[in-house]
Amino acid sequence: MDSSTGVKVSIVLPAYNAEMFVGDAVNSVLSQTCEDWELIVIDDGSNDGTSEVVSGFNDARIKLIRQPNAGVSTARNRGLRAARGGYITFLDADDLLPPDALKIRAEFLDGNPDVDIVNGSVQIEAGVSGKITSLYRPDVHRQKLFDRLVRMDPAVFFGVCYMLRRACVREHVFPPGQTHAEDITFFLEVAHDEDISYAAVDSVVYRYRVAPHSAMANLDGIESGYMSLLRAAENMHRIGPQQMSYLRRRISSILLKSWLRRGNVWKAIRVVLTVHGRWWNARHE
To answer: What is the radius of gyration, based on Cα positions, of the chain?
Structure first.
């Protein structure tokens, strides 16, 4: 184990108005073949029965924290502060962990002390139906993570499904108030400051359920999140001019195509001007 705390894995689960599905998420943790865990559920100011559902589970390993609504980043940060495990991973309230998800990754980190963070395959499903729509498979080659994350390379990043050593988190936090791209912003800053080493397992370690209420449906929020990511990257001294230029083009392309798919040509043009206007201003300051 990576810590003397007596807990191998801390799972941080933020929940907001998740009464209808958080019970499934908790049950997927209770079904883990690795039993040495703590589940920290942060009820982020829900006004439904989220807390009551979580409180209904009679297991001392499940810890419920209630806070006024402050957003997913602040909720995850609250969970990070409470975490005692040697390893940390995340679970969203509407997603699930396959039974071996903790065991496979924790054993990998146990046996590979040179690896700081481990990725895995993700099964993508249509809502609560369980119908599999696609399968994400990561790059399994060992490498430093930072350069790949700067490129927003999907081969090494799929949301919050990493498991990492708590020692690498230190005082890093998810950007408060940021509700989209907050995960890649957090991991990019950790990778930048801690120079962490990446690896992956091929096994499915996460079941990602795409639902109509998904945060990814909010394109204005997505744009705001990517712009926050861009501002954070501009303050990272290890990012060179070429890397920064590539990141701007990547973000610009993602947002341009997203707005065009929505049929909003004006917002598509505006976002390109905004991203490249930041580039122009940075070059001429």
So the answer is: 19
